[in-house]
Amino acid sequence: MSEFFSMILLSLWLLLHLFQVINCSSTPLVPALYVFGDSMVDSGNNDFLNTTAKVNYNPYGTDFPAGPTGRFTNGLTSVDFLAQFLGLHFVPPYLGLSMAQKGKIITGMNYASGSAGILQETGSGMGKNLHLEQQIEFFTETVNQFLPQNFKTKDELLQYLSKSIFVVNIGSNDYLNNYLLSTQYNSSHLYTPEQFASVLLKEFRQHLQELHNLGARKFVVFNLGPLGCLPAIIKLENIKIGCATRVNEMVSLYNKGFHSMIQEMRTSFKGSTFVQGNVNLLSSGLLQTMASNLNGFNFNQSVVDGSLPLPYSFQKTIETIGDSECDPIESGTRSRYNYGFLTPSPCCSILDNETNYCLKDVSTCMDRTTHFFWDGYHPTQSVYRLLAVGCFYGPIPCTPINVLQLALEQPGNASHKHHFVSSSI
């Protein structure tokens, strides 16, 4: 297994070198990118909500041109990179747009919300969020009220939607801010882990079908990463070495059912394409390796000495994709990615004990490219870059085709010949 995972990381590293120029042609590959999910892809919606799940302050956005924007990381998220690769602008948060702006934008919107989940009650202990049903209600409003202002006929609108890409990344909070918090939510008292996974997936499938009914045809849907390896969960579960096995076992139950759900939807929804984003495949081996080689997580340790015995491929240079004007963050700064991920400790030196987010204006690690985690829950920009490059260009972690192939695929061509074989989780 370790050799297999090393080959995965090596393949992604090679992709980072192979594709030296970001696709930023004057003609985008798709007309729009629509985003649904949680804090992994939230671009600022929670800034407009009454919630403690809000990061519109320093040091968040340290590496983002505009500074803090509500993104739960130091710079770009995976969907920001995907938008760049597709030749689109960053997808704006829906709640940050005026009515007039909503009526003019046809390159996509972001409905994702930090702390949100598949279930309505998920994350409610932190305040208001946009649960998945609410996000789809806002997209319904977009389709029925705002987008028609830009198309002459309904058929033109449907053609536009069928060529657009829909990214959905949600489900983590249904465990982190619901099932695992037995004193705040009753889900763990009502369901076994197997039953809870089934409840989530049944609800999830219904919402994906709603998107399909509204005109979506090109989907990129992500499973769950190894939540038991998150610094916040390591702390919550009082784990001294390695990851929280019981939590990762819950994730495995969900991911197994998730894979079956996506396979079934590929069969049921003719003319649609469902790309499965295997977050667990990308991050599990790396995090397990780092965690097992540290005596737990030191929440006040920003940088380790670099002596961690990681597999060779982890130590490989992670270059920028290219010195391109379409990459405002890394343009001309290739040397910043000369290190692999060396530590699972958060880049923030001090975390809030309640939220596990960075405290306002705290110092951060000097080299953010060596850190997998930015705070107690969220990856650094370097990790999001690796995920986006792999999903866009190459056979993993997105299967059975990558996002570039999905973009170039003609709508309705559900019988295409896959270039890559989907792997079960």
Automatic annotation (TrEMBL):
The keyword Signal applies. It is found in: Secreted. One of its GO terms (biological process) is lipid catabolic process. It comes from the Eukaryota. One of its GO terms (cellular component) is extracellular region. It holds the Pfam family Lipase_GDSL. InterPro entries: GDSL, GDSL_esterase/lipase, SGNH_hydro_sf, SGNH_plant_lipase-like. The keyword Nucleotidyltransferase does not apply. Keywords: Hydrolase, Lipid degradation, Lipid metabolism, Secreted, Signal. GO terms for molecular function: hydrolase activity, acting on ester bonds. Residues 1-24 form the signal peptide. Belongs to the 'GDSL' lipolytic enzyme family. This is Uncharacterized protein. It comes from Protea cynaroides.
